[in-house]
Specification:
alpha/beta, about 250 residues, five-stranded mixed beta sheet, about 25% strand
Length: about 250
Amino acid sequence: MSGTLYVIGTGPGGPQQMTPEAVDAVSKSTDFFGYGPYLDRLSLRPDQNRIASDNREELDRAQAALRHAAEGANVCVVSGGDPGVFAMAAAICEAIDKGPDEWRGIDLVVTPGVTAMLAVAARIGAPLGHDFCAISLSDNLKPWDVITRRLKLVAEAGLVIALYNPISTARPWQLGEAFDILRTVLPAETPVIFGRAAGRPDERMLVMPLATADAQKADMATCVIIGSPETRIIPRPDKPDLVYTPRFISGEKR
């Protein structure tokens, strides 16, 4: 008899950002598969086992978890943020799609979570208040020219853009090039939000205009949000500025 495979997200980092549904899944599981730093966020019991693997081994991890669940275990696959946003839920579905028929009979429970762009947006105001999209700058799974084309098209369409995986040791140049592409389309004063480690003790929020946005202000713990031409900044005395994108487009009836 097959067990149950839970796929959860821990939120951006703070324990208060993990949903009750995910916490319940943790309590029901015996074996946990995930990237080590994400597993470290869980307070596991002595009878619960952790199987850590590198962050670049998502498909192998998914297959190992499915094999374990097929043997009858209650398994939990752990992501940061929301498991369905650039995370493990897609890898699990891909493994089921290409794997043995028995994996299709496993009880699969994907729990919704809090992804980084939502946590950053909440800290700064409401930059996602109108239409928006999310793009990963990592070219490990798609060509860079696809990424650059998408950036230009969504900027021309007037969408707010949340950038995941903006920069790394192996990819130190991509965020700067992305800013250069966006500068050809968007106004110089477009707000750029660097939201680092939202919800954690080392959280940092920074807002700069696109004209002077510095890619070196980001790291892999940063979600970068680029506003649309409609996005506004509200200065406040003795408090951080608010950034929001109006619910309406200029000139349209409210």
